[in-house]
Automatic annotation (TrEMBL):
One of its GO terms (molecular function) is galactokinase activity. NCBIfam families: gal_kin (TIGR00131). Its EC number is 2.7.1.6. Belongs to the GHMP kinase family. GalK subfamily. It is an enzyme of class 2 (transferase). One of its GO terms (biological process) is galactose metabolic process. It comes from Croceivirga radicis. Residues 270-350 form the GHMP kinase C-terminal domain. InterPro entries: Galactokinase (IPR000705), Galactokinase_CS (IPR019741), GalKase_N (IPR019539), GHMP_kinase_C_dom (IPR013750), GHMP_kinase_C_sf (IPR036554), GHMP_kinase_N_dom (IPR006204), Mevalonate/galactokinase (IPR006206), Ribosomal_Su5_D2-typ_SF (IPR020568). Residues 7-38 form the Galactokinase N-terminal domain. This is Galactokinase. SUPFAM superfamilies: GHMP Kinase, C-terminal domain, Ribosomal protein S5 domain 2-like.
Length: 379
């Protein structure tokens, strides 16, 4: 495609060590980009307003009139159309192009193939037309694309992790100030293992947005009752307990999960720095409990996998990862026990649900990158 004039970009999925459903609640998160990615080949096609996108992994060919971008009723196309729409608000430098997309990421598995798709596409167009957008602009426009064209009112974590990832490091992101630190993520002799339940979720179904709304409702009540500035950073568990009878029971549960998870990430940061992995793993289990009982984004398959992990001494921590309702668990497990655990988990899972389990080890990797003659090139 396009011969020497085509560019190749890779854009990774992400994991999250801890800090789930708090990115849109002014919390802290600890994600990393992963090796598994989506690849984009892109070149100019000499037209002023026609883009053609072919994909392996997402179905179909998308023909786009760049002068008339509008969302489709549903589908993967909206991630791309949303990105073009947002980029056109920032620049008039985009003309016709052809793009081939190949995904090596499992879709709907909680490793954020959607952010990889948005960010990689934005990065590719930015490079091709030399638009001069920086990484943060790509992160933010991709998040807006998801809000405005896909309809998921996601936080910033996934796009941030996909674009800012660095090999060997997790990133502690303050989702309020957007300041972040790279945190070394070498857990030797432990490794990160993802177990894909192969139960798929669809964040756009509304359950995600509903939780976001419930948190906003709870916060606005607490703001008016206590006169605090409108941020979950200012909410304490005492305030919540004191307001329990005035809050809807579900809203109370959502908010108490958020306050507890924000505190857990702060503890997790210290434990990681001190290499106290056992205690870190215990926090992962606590996060899972909260996501399952109070935030209600787990499902029986994921609870089963986490319960299984809890019974293994070699697994220090395990929990649902990402938006929820299916997808992967993330497990911190001793490297010598990986194969045995996968075999045991797969057999038990198949017996219980009749579903195959996929497992893959993963390591923190670089963010969205232009590949040139076998070398990676940053923005
Ligand atoms: C999804 C969202 F896209 C993220 O912003 C984040 O809220 C996550 O769910 C839950 O932590 O992946």
């Amino acid at each position: 495609m396009g011969g020497e004039n085509s560019l190749t970009i890779v854009s990774p999925g992400r994991i999250n060590l801890i800090g789930e459903h708090v990115d849109y609640n002014d919390g802290f998160v600890l994600p990393a980009a992963i090796e598994q990615h989506i690849q984009f080949k892109i070149c100019k096609n000499g037209t002023s307003n026609k883009a053609i996108v072919r994909s392996k992994g997402f179905e179909g060919v998308l023909e786009i009139n760049l002068k008339a971008i509008t969302p489709r009723p549903a589908g993967w196309e909206n991630y791309l159309l949303g990105v073009i729409n947002e980029m056109q608000q920032l620049t008039d430098g985009i003309s016709g192009f052809d793009c081939e997309i190949q995904s090596f990421l499992p879709v709907g598995s909680g490793v954020s193939s959607s952010a990889a798709l948005e960010c990689g596409f934005a990065y590719a167009i930015n490079e091709l037309f030399d638009l001069g957008l920086d990484r943060w602009q790509i992160v933010k426009l991709s998040q807006r694309a998801e809000h405005n064209y896909v309809g998921t009112k996601c936080g910033i974590m996934d796009q941030f992790a996909s674009v800012m990832g660095k090999k060997g490091f997790a990133m502690l992101l303050d989702c309020k100030s957007l300041e972040f630190d790279y945190v070394p993520a070498n857990f030797d002799p432990y490794v990160l293992l993802l177990l894909n339940s192969n139960v798929t979720h669809d964040l756009a179904t509304g359950a995600y947005n509903k939780r976001r709304q419930q948190c906003e409702d709870g916060l606005s009540f607490l703001v008016s009752k206590y006169g605090i500035a409108p941020s979950f950073r200012n909410v304490t568990l005492d305030m919540l307990t004191d307001s329990k009878s005035q809050l809807d029971a579900t809203v109370f549960n959502r908010c108490s999960y958020v306050v507890e998870e924000i505190a857990r990430v702060q503890m997790a940061k210290t434990l990681l720095k001190e290499n106290k992995l056992k205690a870190f793993g215990e926090l992962m289990y606590k996060t899972h409990e909260g996501l399952s009982d109070k935030y209600e984004v787990s499902c029986k398959e994921l609870d089963f996998l986490v319960d299984l992990a809890k019974r293994e001494n070699a697994v220090l921590g395990s929990r649902i990862m990402g938006g929820g309702f299916g997808g992967c668990t993330i497990n911190l497990i001793h490297k010598d026990s990986v194969n045995l655990f996968i075999a045991k988990a797969a057999a038990a899972y198949k017996k219980e649900f009749g579903i195959e389990l996929n497992a893959f080890e993963t390591q923190p990797s670089n963010g969205t990158t232009l590949i040139k003659e076998n070398h990676e090139v940053g923005l």
